[in-house]
Amino acid sequence: MLNDLLVCFGVSGTVIPKLWQKPCDNKAQNGYPKAAAAAGRNLSPVHSTLDLYKRQLLPGPKLDVLSKTLLGNIDDCLCWERLEALYVITENSISLKDFCAEFLVDVITRTLFGDRIYELEPELVEHFLDFNDDAWMLVFQVPQSAASKLSKARSKILKCFAAYTAASDDFKYGRAWLIENVMDEQKALDISDQDRAALLLMIYWA
Hints:
This protein is mostly helical.
């Protein structure tokens, strides 16, 4: 089931076995980032991502940093000047559902990937919302044409994330510890930028 979903998100079928394979001890110590090696881990990329999720989100210093960044982004995105620029305030009401969806995806995007990701795709939030609307079709493997809203949104997000993975560390300044370590581990295993982009999409969507 998970392998099928990985392919639906854009991961190459030839990469799937590598995602379940544990690295050899030498690779784990010398190729992986210090955070992984210091813990004596020897996990497959799939299980490593799960482990990194726990390290990021369980109570402790890493969660404290993430929470501080998230709250800062919430404050920045709720300032009146920014809201006034994004929404035309008239006597008519705006959709609270749409506002909350756009706002939450925006602050989470900035918290995970840093602000500069919008330089690669200014409409990333809109593309993600379009993708999320129909993502259930991937879970149930409903056939999609290249012209469908889901396929178009996925293509634009993957293009953005592929450029993001290829960008310098300076460009990715502000990304979450989870994202930094997941990307470093995948790079150490020689996973292509395109496949890393698809794996980032799964984290973004989850």
